[in-house]
Design a protein that fits this description.
The radius of gyration is 23 Å and the shape is rod-shaped. The two termini are 41 Å apart. The chain has three helices and six strands; from the N terminus they run αβββββααβ. By secondary structure, it is α+β, with helices and mostly antiparallel strands. It has a domain at 86-141. Helix content is 42%, strand content 27%. The longest helix is centred in the middle third of the chain and has 27 residues, at 85-111.
Amino acid sequence: MRLAVCSIVAVHVLTVFAYGQGPEGSWENLKRLRVGQSVQIVDMKLKSTKGDFVSFSEDTVSIRQGGQELVFKRGDVYRITLQQRLKSALIAGSVGAAAGFALGAVVDYLDDVDSTDPGSNNGKLSATGVGFGIGFGLGAAFPGQQTIYRSKPRTN
């Protein structure tokens, strides 16, 4: 049974690599985008353009950069990625809060060795807030990206 499952998974993975058609290979994935979302379009010459998503059709995708609307033909688009600044910031903030809480717990423990300090949770509370702030800031500064569309490799 395990061999059969492993074989099926291996064949699927090899097919994806052979044809370059992972989940982001379909132009229809652009339906998931909402107007105004921040995207990056990389053309076939590997020139990158960032802007806010406007619309797409069967043959084109449009973004707004500054006050100007830019239209890219489907054949000229190599990759479209969604910029995920808020999601990255929240994840990094959560990790920072957890690390801050752990550090604060250690500080509280070392500070209150005789169990007489009434403010023995101050380290946990303050370090959790500081950790969240630092993590949130770093996550916002370095946003994550999700590939929405990647073109098929061209064969000559």
